[in-house]
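# step 3/5: fold
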Amino acid sequence: MSVNLITHRTSPRSRQALFEKTRHRILSRKATQNRSPQQLLLLLDELMKFELGVFLLDNQGINGYWIDHVVNWVPTAQKPPEMSELEYIIYSQFPSALATRERHQIFLQLIQDRIDLVQCALSVPCGLMSEFFQLNSEHIFSTHFVGLDLDERVLELTQLMAERKGMQENCEFYWGDSWEMNFDNEFDLLSSNGLNFFEHDDEKVIELYQLFFNALKTGGSLVTSFLTPPPLISSVSPWLMEYIDPDMMDLENQLFSDVIDVHWNAYRTEDQTRHQLESVGFKKIRFIYDKAHIFPTVLAEK
């Protein structure tokens, strides 16, 4: 089935075609401030050496499987022999990867604090649904969990995860577009990460938040996130540079912007996000920041 995902492709291209297309795009651009096209081509060569690198190049985005892989990667003091040098740097030192892992832990804690009072919870897009499967509570076996995702392959993996956890009886999965869901007053908690920073249209994001609001019961909680603008593009960036390696920030920018040309660049501020959530009815909105203020978590109530 052919679908249009805003986060990634559904049909991978051949590695040779992918390499040639990216190489042509790099050579067609002017030299960036810090790296020449030849240096960017060296980064391209390195990206082609590992699966995440190839996926990022092919999709210019990321899916639930790879997000799960990044958030659950266990940091090591030295590079594991099976990882390439660039791969290890991405996982262990890139500001976005560090913030993503921290964001995941914040999600887990917020949901953990509420799970014993939750009868029904929704994850959208659910990815591998780690924010539910990793909860530490006997109550998870009596809570009804629902996952919605447009990526059929990821949904299949998530169903297998539910079976391995012994949770297949209280998990339900739907294939579908998040902007077309029609749940009404059904959930005590809704978890969502990974859509708004791919969508530049503010009205579309507000439309999504309205669907979240509709899906929740009165008193229900929304746990979501957004990406803040980096200092390279915004004078009001909230990033705390004392917690960010400037060399890694520069390398990440060169890799993601100049080589891969990623699509997760719909940045928003706290004020913008608060206004969007309030406009659809959410109350008691709270922002919980990662250490570097790159990837805030939002807790809001219907």
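# step 4/5: annotate
Residues 128 and 157 are 7 Å apart (CA to CA).
# step 5/5: archive (pending)
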